[in-house]
Amino acid sequence: MRLSRYCKIFQDKINSDSVLLFSTRNASKLSIPKNLLKEIESDKLSKEEKNTLTELGFLAKSHEHEKNELLGLMDELNSTNKTFKAIVVMNLDCNLACKYCFEGTRKGKFYMSRETADEFVEFVRNNITSGGLDKINLIFYGGEPLLSIGHIIYISEKLETLCETEGTEYSFSLITNGTLLSPGIAERLKSLGLKSASVTLDGPREVHDIFRPYKTGKRSFDNIFKNVKNVCDIIDIQIGGNFTKDNYMQFPLLLDYLYEEGLSPDKISTVRFDPVINEGEGIMPPDFHDGCNSSDEPWLLEAGLFLREEIIKRGYNTPKITPGICMMELRDNMLINYNGDIYKCPGMISREEYKVGDIRTGVRDYRQSHYLDNWKNEKCLNCEYLPLCFGGCRYMKLVRDGNMDGIDCKKPYLDAALEALVKQDIKYS
After folding, report:
1. Are 28 and 122 within one domain?
2. What is the per-residue pLDDT across 57-111, written as a single tens digit (0 to 9) for each?
3. Fewest CB atoms within 10 A around its CB: which of 9, 132, 253, 418?
4. Do 64 and 203 belong together in one domain?
5. Number of domains the chain contains
6. Within the chain, what is the greatest distance between any pair of CA atoms?
7. DSSP states of 139-155 as a string?
């Protein structure tokens, strides 16, 4: 046995005689004496110690064995998966006029029809039958999905009946701006399988209302906040927010306001802030240029670490550092557009060249067009960050370079950030 290729070693600043081990494959953390590290490196551990450290991801039979395991990981995940997951775009319409709108020029009065809703239900039925699936998990998305509340109810009633017949579990969540998420709607949808809703608040009231007003120009923060307070005891609420270089320092004011207004960590399931991404010419609103094009932009490291610490030191949950698998790699994860077209990433919506099929004819082989094996090269396979990255984000590669050929290497960012992220989790755990 030897130390895993995917084990990072950091100095323990609290105890100078110890080091911190972090497994990028298992997300395990362990503080050990330096003399034990020497025993690991010289293979002088007891059988019990070896078994424990292997289970945690810190030891491996050999680097070649680890490499082969990761090379086969996606095939293993796809062959054992029993859950069908789909982001379902109900429309590309919205009642807000966000300055940085993610849909941008793709937005319009485009709604899923009743015919397409029926075809989608049949598509799910076929996937249950052919794939032996035991769970259906949908995310209703937009535009603003609750503008299509009737179709969400219609699809959910159909799928509930189908899943009861097939012995399959059905559940769903929402990604919503929160303006229409009233207690009545939350209760109705909960009865059909709604588990959670992700609601966007872009910082404190003054910042949010600049970036996310109604189409009429009216401010939206107070209405959204009222809805969050009124439904957080009905369903799980996740708070998301999108920051720029100029406003991220103000986001902790939102956290304080949440707490002051009774939305303490026991009321909110997770909080996560992300940078606005420049979608590229022809998609992003032409007068907005404050987003980022790469995770390597220097200010993002400072902003990300600052905001993450502000979240967790107040007791709110935020995503941990875990191995990340892109939905493109997972066969039964997909995005269904309002017209039935199938994509493998929300960023690809309406980009015709990246459509991988439709709900009427099925999914074509997209391995080459989406560069699924981009990480299967010696540089990536020998990189200690591979389990956190797997070649990076193809969407970010597309935004930055205009194509998905090659990798979106996260090594410079993780070299700079991972130790601080691990120590944040330890400090506030």
Report:
1. no
2. 999 999 999 999 999 999 999 999 999 999 999 999 999 999 988 777 788 999 9
3. 132
4. no
5. 2
6. 70
7. EEESS-GGGGHHHHHHH
Q: Beta strands of 46-96 (E only): which ranges?
A: 59-60, 83-89
Fill in the DSSP letter of residue 217: S
The number of CA neighbours under 13 Å toward the Cβ of 258 is 30
Question: By mean pLDDT, which of 41-55, 135-149, 174-188 is the weakest?
Answer: 41-55
Residue where a domain terminates, one of 290, 313, 336: 313
Beta strands in 308-384 (DSSP E): 333-336, 341-343, 357-358, 362-363
Residue 320 and residue 27 in contact, taking contact as beta carbons nearer than 8 Å:
yes
Amino acid symbol at 119? E
- The amino acid sitting at 4 is S
Calculate the dihedral angle through the C-alpha atoms of 45, 51, 57, 59, rounding to the nearest 10 degrees: 40
Query: Which residue shows structure tokens 């012995």?
Result: 167
251 lies in which domain range? 83-313
Cis peptide bond prior to 143, omega within 30° of 0 = yes
Kindly state whether residues 62 and 101 are assigned to the same domain: no
Question: pLDDT tens for residues 298-339?
Answer: 889 999 999 999 999 999 999 999 988 999 999 999 999 999
d(CA 246, CA 183): 35
CB 271 within 8 A of CB 239: yes
